[in-house]
Amino acid sequence: EIQIASLLKSSELFPIPQGLKLSYGTAGFRGDAKLLESTVYRVGILSALRSLKLGSSTIGLMITASHNKVSDNGIKVSDPSGGMLSQEWEPFADQIANAASPQELVSLIREFVEKEEIKIGEYKAAEVWLGRDSRPSGESLLRAAEIGVDSVLGSVSVDIGVLTTPQLHWMVRAKNKGLKATENNYFENLSTSFRCLVDLIPINGNNKFEISKLLVDGANGVGGQKIEMLRGSLSNLDLEIRNTGRDGGVLNEGVGADFVQKEKVLPLGFGLKDVGMRCASLDGDADRLVYFYVPSDSTSDVKVELLDGDKILSLFALFMKEQLNVLDDGKEGKQSRLGVVQTAYANGASTDYLKQLGLDVVFAKTGVKHLHEKAAEFDIGIYFEANGHGTILFSESFLSWLVTKQKDLTTKGQGGSEEQKAVSRLVAVSNLINQAVGDALSGVLLVEVILQHIGWSIQKWNELYKDLPSRQIKVEVPDRTAVVTTSQETEALRPLGIQDAINSEIKNYSRGRAFIRPSGTEDVVRVYAEASTQEAADSLANSVAELVK
Ligand code: NG1
Ligand code: ZN
């Protein structure tokens, strides 16, 4: 009962704004930062309970609104594995975030604690690690989360500072595995495994390849700052970082991966002077990455050639398959299951390409938690959203097979064999790539080392396949929840009749494909369309948008 008193007392500090209605969407709670203190405080309580429920494993809380505008903010929970909060707890998150009064909040918590049999005060201290991106509202929201965590008996909050989202997830994962888990350990891990892959680049004809400079768009956010910190410890990589946020630019405004991918235009700070150069763009919390370049036929009307998540996925898949082939061909090889996961937003041409590579291609709903789950079913599962969020997962059993194999080959004196190199590359990739969530920093390093390995320019990489022209539009509507889709999100069930209308539009276009779904992170309905020409894709998207309005 002392417990209840302390919860009631602290919750009175954070009254819920009138009319606020939130749901734990594709990426936690998001909204106008000014309205979020009560939400963040309540998620603080939830994460302490989550830690207690899981025997006091460390839970992470990240305060970020990713690619959203700077005045927005948000909060999402990392489970002990470094993955997203278990979906079983999302309804509870919704309930407490929307509880109208301190009394209602406390009674919801009481009920839940009983139902989940959470033993408050019996275990060693529960720990919640709090991180935030560079948004100015982050600091006061972090304080609110701390109060939430600390008002649950036996739990403590630890402020781990300004971080990228993937850093926080990586640190939580490492902590719970009993590994070194500081930000420095994160950087060391990246630079060591990158070095290892560089050392394994074959020395033959095709890659006497001059390492050209990579231009990075930091979205005026935390990613640009962190990649600058990493740069010092990397050799074999020449980086020029723009939009670090220090030169007066605003977070995500005319910059960043979401902007470049959705609008298909160059970010601020890039222009004709950069023709042909390899460029990469991070999003506001650095869990997304896209590449791009200015084609040489650009005139004063500067064009952009985009290499999105699908193309990064294809490059990764190609490289991983090449390494696995060496093992599968070897006498002591093992038939390994390599699979890729995409969403309905994946460009149709990328799906065709991946299938033609002979890969298992699976589809998941939008939101990394859905992709992650499916990728985890393979020995090596690669997932990417077209917007550049993705990573590579290695199953525990496959990874331990690899590590054993690596040792065997070394003791047998086959240290320099092709097989041993392929095994070592795969092990290095498993260390480099962030297996908790998509991570733009590890993504950049893996893309760069693969390009060096195969001796490709960005233009050559872009030629893997040609994107079908596509268009995305956001439509603001009074109530986005009026749109309800099937589980694969490719068909709208509500409003009644709208899918038939969309289908009859699609019929007018060659290679036409289109769908709508409510955004989980913004107050909009998204429209996606593909067709054989850009004009056709634009026109299909526009007519579908008219149907939504
Ligand atoms: P919503 O707003 O639910 O479409 C967006 C992205 C997702 C995911 C989340 C989280 C698109 C079309 N949607 O979700 O893929 O990345 O943000 O950041 O890019
Ligand atoms: Zn993000």
Automatic annotation (TrEMBL):
Domain of life of the source: Eukaryota
EC nos: 5.4.2.3
Pathway(s): Nucleotide-sugar biosynthesis; UDP-N-acetyl-alpha-D-glucosamine biosynthesis; N-acetyl-alpha-D-glucosamine 1-phosphate from alpha-D-glucosamine 6-phosphate (route I): step 2/2
InterPro entries for the chain: A-D-PHexomutase_a/b/a-I, A-D-PHexomutase_a/b/a-I/II/III, A-D-PHexomutase_C, A-D-PHexomutase_C_sf, AMG1_II, AMG1_III, PAGM
Listed cofactors: Mg(2+)
Stretches assigned to the Phosphoacetylglucosamine mutase AMG1 domain: 181-290, 308-456
Broad class of enzyme this protein falls into: isomerase
Catalytic activity: N-acetyl-alpha-D-glucosamine 1-phosphate = N-acetyl-D-glucosamine 6-phosphate
Domain Alpha-D-phosphohexomutase alpha/beta/alpha: 57-90
Any matching Pfam family: PGM_PMM_IV
Keyword Isomerase: yes
Lipoprotein as UniProt keyword: no
Cofactor binding annotation: Binds 1 Mg(2+) ion per subunit.
Swiss-Prot/TrEMBL keywords: Isomerase, Magnesium, Metal-binding, Phosphoprotein
Domain called Alpha-D-phosphohexomutase C-terminal: residue spans: 474-546
Physiological role: Interconverts GlcNAc-6-P and GlcNAc-1-P.
Sequence similarity: Belongs to the phosphohexose mutase family.
Name of this protein: Phosphoacetylglucosamine mutase
Gene, per the UniProt record: LOC104706112
